[in-house]
Each structure stands twice: as C-alpha cells, then as structure tokens.
Design a protein that fits this description.
Strand content: 25-35%
Protein name: DNA polymerase V
Helix content: under 10%
Order of helices and strands: HEEEEHE
Number of domains: 1
Largest sheet: 5 strands, antiparallel
Number of strands: 5
Number of helices: 2
Structural class: mainly beta
InterPro entries: LexA/Signal_pep-like_sf
Shape: elongated
CATH architecture: Ribbon
CATH class: Mainly Beta
Length: about 110
C-alpha cells in the first residue's frame, strides 16, 4: 500500500534526553540538591537540583560550586582569580577555597509530584 508521507515528518526530532542535554561529561557530572535558597543574588530555592560539571573549565559569568573548608556555596568565580590560571589549576583559588565544579543547569519542580 502506498500513500503520502506524513505532513509532520518535517517536524520530527530526535528523542529528547536530559542526560545528553545536561551532561556532556557524564563521568564528571554531579547532581547537587540545594539545602537553603537565596544568597549571592542567585534565584536558588531549597530543593532545587544543580547540575555541576567538574570537567568544564570556568568562564567569566559562570556559577561555580565552591568548597570553603567543607561548606559549599554557589557563587561567581572570584574576579581576583586570573582565568588562565584557573584553567591551568581550577581547584586552587586560595583562602581554603576550592572550585568543586561549574554549575551548568538548574532543575526545579514547578508543581508537587
């Protein structure tokens, strides 16, 4: 039996995968749940999930998950750190502060499950 192709055929896309979209480096990507919202002007809420990529080199304007002696915070990468030095050794920010990774996505529920 022959027929006409579906008119929607031109609009078909590949299956959408959050893994492929949000995790280009799956072996070095972590999901981190936010315990408390606010802080540093970021629109974070308790319960949000951050996708954090440890393989991505930081760029100006990126959100960074920083470790301050075991206390984690989301902040812009400090402007005092030269970005070429951060790329060579992104973990050494001084003042007992290390870069855990770059926040690449923010996942938030908009209604209760």
């Amino acid at each position: 039996m022959t027929g006409f192709p579906s008119p929607a055929q031109d609009f078909m896309q590949q299956e959408l995968s959050l893994d492929r979209l949000c995790m280009p480096h799956p072996e070095s990507t972590f999901l981190v749940r936010v315990a408390a919202g606010g802080g540093h002007g970021y629109p974070l809420q308790a319960g949000d999930v951050l996708v954090v990529d440890r393989a991505r080199l930081p760029r100006r304007g990126d959100w960074a998950l920083l470790d301050h002696d075991g206390q984690f915070s989301v902040q812009p990468l400090p402007a005092t750190v030269p970005y070429d030095a951060a790329a060579d050794d992104p973990a050494s920010l001084g003042n007992n502060c290390t870069l855990f990774g770059v926040v690449t996505y923010l996942l938030r529920a908009v209604s209760a499950p």
